[in-house]
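Q: What does the predicted 3D structure of Tetratrico peptide repeat group 5 domain-containing protein look like?
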Amino acid sequence: PAAVARGLLLASVSALGCRGGSNAAPPLVRNAPTAEAKSAPPMRPASVLPVLRVVLDDPRLARARDLERNKDPAGAFRAMREARPVALSALDRCAWDYVEGRLALAANATADAQLAFELAQAQACPLSGYATLRSAQALARAGRADEAIARAGAVPEDLALRDEAKLVVAEALSAKNDRASALPLWRAWLASNPHGNRWVDTSVRIANALLDGVDGPPDAHAREALDVVTKV
């Protein structure tokens, strides 16, 4: 049974390139508000638009916006840095820092992303919880697993994307060769997010862990691995 499940896993992963869907995270700028936008407090004094929603709509960031939409996050990050005014209000500064961090992280500029997110973690910043989460992701991507786990633990419990923090912890544990501790976190994340933006690779991680004997004899978990594989 385990051998059959592993064969199906390999076939499923190979077929992903032929599917119409994608496991990639959505672009930063979309017409519909993101979870961050829905959770952020309104701009002061009268606007009802969330802080994040208006950042890349700023006319000064037209070039950065176009580059991001053309899937050039590195270029968009540079353009945003070049366009950044010296004087920004505290609220605007927090939002610009956060978006700079998102662009830098998308461009794999983890050091720049980490710096930007740390600036946006100020207590007065309405996006501080999201900045903490993205900071944890940047640390994990940089291979700083222990720091990523600690930072993910600081993500507020009431954050809309709190489950992503658990995924950061799971992947950091896996990077430390502790898949036994990562497996229940992967399972819990997939149960809560069966079609989240990381469901494909999380399903593959679960199946591989089970078939590698992380949770006991592979044959004992072949059915679970098979179920995960067939969903992919």
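A (community wiki): The structure tokens above were generated from the sequence. The radius of gyration is 20 Å. The domain at 27-160 is CATH 1.25.40 (Serine Threonine Protein Phosphatase 5, Tetratricopeptide repeat).
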